[in-house]
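User:
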Amino acid sequence: MIVVDVNALAYLWIQGPFTAAAAACLKKDPVWAAPLLWRSEFSNVLAIYLRKGLLNRTEAGQAFLKAEKTLAGQEFSVAAEEVLDLVMKSSCTAYDCEYVALARKLGVKLVTKDGRILRDFPREAVDLELFAKG
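Assistant: Predicted structure:
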């Protein structure tokens, strides 16, 4: 099992430069987990793609359903106290710290391309491409 942030999900289900790496991560470890927050964040990513005309409504809906299936049974809440503690120790957003808190809670790695998370939480976070290759 790994924790993935919303960008890893977007890379997997929206074609782009990191889609192959995200697919390799899924093949390497098919059990992906995320905090409940992923739903709102992923909807926002899809909204951006819709407004820019990069996806149509059907494609956006399909991407969301695929992401839901990927995380089925592996969506978790995290303690606000833990998130706030992580915020105080880093330059990351509270959103980002939810993913870190979940990785800690589950005792697994957080796979991400977010440079700030990778820098501030090197024990918990691993780069998506490095994880895919490793």
